[in-house]
Amino acid sequence: MTQPKTPLTTRGPFNEALQQRKMLLWRVRDFWIRATGKLPFNELRVVVYRYLFGVNIAEGARIEGGCTIWGPKRVTIGPGTVVNRDVILDGRFPLTIGSFVSISVRSVILTLEHDLGDPEFRAVGAPVQIGDRVFIGTGSIVLPGVTIGDGAVVAAGAVVTKDVEPFTIVGGVPARPIGVRPRNMACSFEPPTDRYKAGSGRHRPS
């Protein structure tokens, strides 16, 4: 069941000077996270994301260049997962990504959005969970509160507003079921050295 969204709360009474300082710190951190995405090697990027910004990245996961991570301490990425170029991961509410997931280029996974029905247009959010061996196609958007089950596929350009059942293929705006996927998925992603050898039985991340 899609998780209900809750308002983004602040601790204590509103203090404009304090909020300005927090915003300044957020912008500085955001600058350095974006700069990390421009580092030339995956191993270097992962070390910086993990130990400087607190992203929970399992061994064997890859984050390609140009990615942006908001709220890095609430982002968890499982082993063997590939986050491709120019992806946005939003950890302002918890974001959990399973094992051997492929997230294609320019996809956006959000945990926070504005409440269009609120006269004050306040921000609301909810955790997002992505199961094992999920494939998220190019330019897809996953909205707050969504759970994507193991082995599911999100087609390119889809906007996911509701939960996706395991091994279900969804597409469109908003995303709806359009097919099913085999339940005996065993794909994994090798390091780039020889992952494209003929007959290796491995899949190239998109």
How is the secondary structure organized here?
Layout: E1 6-7, H1 16-36, H2 42-51, E2 56-57, E3 62-63, E4 68-70, E5 75-77, E6 82-83, E7 88-90, E8 95-97, E9 102-103, E10 108-109, E11 112-114, E12 123-125, E13 128-130, E14 135-136, E15 141-142, E16 147-148, E17 153-154, E18 159-160, E19 168-171, E20 176-180
Parallel strand pairs: 2-5, 3-6, 4-7, 5-8, 6-9, 7-10, 8-13, 9-14, 10-15, 13-16, 14-17, 15-18, 17-19
Antiparallel strand pairs: 1-12, 11-12, 19-20
List its salient traits.
alpha/beta, 7-stranded mixed sheet, 5-stranded parallel sheet, 2 helices, globular, disordered C terminus
Task: Please describe what this structure looks like.
With 206 residues, this protein is an alpha/beta fold. Helices cover 15% and strands 25% of the residues. It is built from two helices and 20 strands. The chain is globular.
> Stretches where pLDDT falls below 50 for ≥5 residues?
192-206
Number of strands: 20
Whole-angstrom Rg: 18 Å
Distance between the termini: 29 Å
| Spatial shape | globular
- The secondary-structure element order is EHHEEEEEEEEEEEEEEEEEEE
Strand order of the largest sheet: 3-6-9-14-17-19-20
* Amount of beta strand: 25-35%
Name the structural class.
Answer: alpha/beta
Largest sheet: 7 strands, mixed
Mean pLDDT: 86
Helix percent reads: 10-25%
Question: What is this entry, summarized?
Answer:
The chain is of the alpha/beta class. It is built from two helices and 20 strands.
